[in-house]
């Protein structure tokens, strides 16, 4: 824990990652809307490596006389920040340190925040190939898309999920697992550890990814077995969701993946 006392200044530096994406405001200005469940602290925007000296990509909480040891899990603070225009999903860092009388940092200790900070992205893609366009026919369709955000890898568990949902008048063939594109075509396959077959009964495909994860701007292809709608009509959009494991909301989502033309 940290303890502020007379003649000594302790601070905690929070750095937003990726450091070249987040821009929180002007350095050395007060954090917008800062409030905390503990007293005796203040928050100021700071510029850290990765940003220009005139741009803040993090903030510093300065501790006065408030004891920070053993605060427990109920301690919290709030501030308002502006999201970047680029979708991101990455852990921020927090570094505690003591400032000397010359304002030099000593005794630094850095940790990653327990959950990544994400800005919602939007997958982009379309049905790029299919075998048959006839009504009610069973066949393979090929979906190509960019995920719109990155799932952080986890070598020990499932990192996240890619959820693919066709229009409601398509039928997902339960007996057919999704397939990778032919190797000779040179397209990237989804790096799925497994496909959750139970989800196919719910009319969707769910791909679990691990340490070999999906990246925001990489184009992937996957072959999916469907039965076409029983009646003809205009092409309907498909839906794709990208989830980080443990997140309450998707890190990327779209309802406008172009369907069969």
In N-to-C order, the SSE pattern is: EEEEEEEEEEEEEEEHEEEE
Poorly predicted runs of 5 or more residues: 1-6
| Silhouette | elongated
Tell me the major beta sheet.
5 strands, antiparallel
Number of helices: 1
Which strand order spans the largest sheet, edge to edge or round the barrel?
A: 3-4-1-7-8
Query: What gyration radius follows from the Cα positions, in whole Å?
Result: 24 Å
Strand content: 35-45%
- Percent helix: under 10%
Number of strands: 19
**Class inferred from helices and paired strands:** mainly beta
The whole-number mean of residue pLDDT values reads 91
State the end-to-end CA separation.
61 Å
Topology:
Elements: E1 9-15, E2 35-36, E3 41-46, E4 58-63, E5 77-78, E6 88-90, E7 93-99, E8 105-112, E9 117-119, E10 124-130, E11 138-146, E12 160-165, E13 171-172, E14 188-189, E15 192-195, H1 197-200, E16 205-209, E17 220-227, E18 238-244, E19 252-257
Parallel strand pairs: 14-17
Antiparallel strand pairs: 1-4, 1-7, 2-5, 3-4, 6-9, 7-8, 10-11, 11-17, 12-16, 12-18, 13-17, 15-16, 18-19
Structure keywords:
five-stranded antiparallel β-sheet, 261 residues, five-stranded mixed β-sheet, mainly beta, 38% strand
Structure description:
This protein starts with 8 loop residues before the first strand and ends with a strand. Strand 18 and strand 19 form a beta hairpin. The longest helix has 4 residues. It is elongated. The protein has 261 residues and is mostly beta strands. The N terminus is likely disordered.
């Amino acid at each position: 824990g940290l303890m502020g006392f007379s003649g000594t200044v302790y601070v905690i530096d929070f750095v937003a990652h990726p450091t070249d994406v987040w821009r929180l405001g002007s350095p050395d200005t007060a954090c917008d809307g800062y409030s905390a469940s503990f007293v005796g602290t203040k928050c100021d925007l700071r510029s850290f490596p990765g940003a220009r000296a005139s741009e803040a990509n993090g903030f510093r909480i300065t501790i006065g006389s408030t004891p920070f040891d053993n605060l427990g899990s109920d301690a919290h603070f709030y501030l308002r920040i502006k999201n970047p225009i680029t979708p991101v999903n990455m852990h921020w860092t927090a570094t505690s340190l003591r400032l000397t009388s010359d304002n030099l940092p000593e005794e630094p200790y850095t940790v990653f925040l327990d959950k990544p900070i994400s800005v919602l992205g939007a997958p982009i893609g379309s049905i790029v190939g299919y075998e048959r366009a006839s009504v009610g026919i069973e066949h393979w369709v090929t979906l190509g898309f960019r995920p719109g955000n990155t799932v952080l890898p986890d070598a020990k568990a499932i990192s996240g999920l890619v959820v693919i949902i066709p229009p409601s008048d398509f039928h997902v063939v339960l007996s057919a697992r999704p397939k990778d594109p032919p190797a000779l075509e040179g397209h990237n396959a989804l790096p799925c550890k497994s496909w959750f077959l139970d989800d196919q009964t719910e009319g969707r495909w769910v791909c679990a990814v691990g340490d070999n994860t999906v990246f925001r701007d990489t184009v992937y292809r996957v072959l999916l077995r469907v039965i076409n709608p029983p009646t003809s009509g205009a092409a309907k959009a498909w839906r794709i969701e990208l989830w980080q494991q443990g997140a309450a909301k998707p890190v990327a989502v779209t309802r406008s993946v172009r369907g069969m033309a």
